[in-house]
């Protein structure tokens, strides 16, 4: 899509943006709206790098508006609140995840499922109802309606809180919605990246016995000794799969590459649920017989509503769930995105915006 002129806003902001499909980011001056009466403005201190940032900066989903300032795992400190803001005050620790607005009229919005609102406004690269293009957290400041701002508990550091706002809620919401949150259940997690490693931690904290399912045998030690999984299955090892047939109550599948579903469906008990949260670019082959034979369910899930995101953050704080992060300076961001592409990160990059983003850089 062609570059669009920036609508003039009164407040100067500074960040890093991609300007074309090369996806390379560089310093970028822009502007943000004045803090409205229900708005919370905050200084961004940390922003996580999500795999979708990579797709968006390169226009791989075909809907990118350049220049684009990515970042939807944004955490910082409140600097200003509007006159009608009730939940926040200056100095509070806050965050913004994948969305900054929604229609507030549809059934999804009424049900606290703003993430499924057909007119939701994404945190970056999305057209806001006021006509402006939203810019994300690879920048010095954010402004959002308080209904879309998450309160970060004191015992949760902002750098580890940031990735929870997308990666965390993406795996927490399906565990809750699909009833995979009961103690004693046997839960599988497919893929051990940013999403998968958090799925292991949340499922464990919810009382599940967790099996990591991966193509890489060398992740076994990491999964069990470091992340606390109970067992490990190599997804291409027929003997191991055979032995584990019909043992899992649910599976959170975080893989976004094309992969076979049959082995996963076979691992489920009768009435087991396979939930996809990764988004492969092409359709997957769906074997129907094994679903029918065990009354099994295949489902999907996308991030979560604001109420549930707050619940997830509070749960993470209470149970000491923290993503494993690699904190980087902003001028490392292009290298970091390349490494995300190669899955060369344990398990999430978080940009230290507060200390490294300088208007002169
Ligand atoms: Zn994300
Ligand atoms: Zn709505």
UniProtKB/TrEMBL annotation:
Signal peptide positions (record): none
Annotated catalysed reactions: D-mannitol + NAD(+) = D-mannose + NADH + H(+)
Domain of life: Eukaryota
GO MF terms held by the record: mannitol dehydrogenase activity; zinc ion binding
Xref: PANTHER family: ALDEHYDE REDUCTASE
Enoyl reductase (ER) domain sequence ranges: 23-351
Required cofactor names: Zn(2+)
Family: Belongs to the zinc-containing alcohol dehydrogenase family.
Organism placement in taxonomy: Eukaryota, Viridiplantae, Streptophyta, Embryophyta, Tracheophyta
Native organism: Lupinus angustifolius (Narrow-leaved blue lupine)
Function of the molecule: Oxidizes mannitol to mannose. Provides the initial step by which translocated mannitol is committed to central metabolism and, by regulating mannitol pool size, is important in regulating salt tolerance at the cellular level.
The protein's name: mannitol dehydrogenase
Enzyme class: oxidoreductase
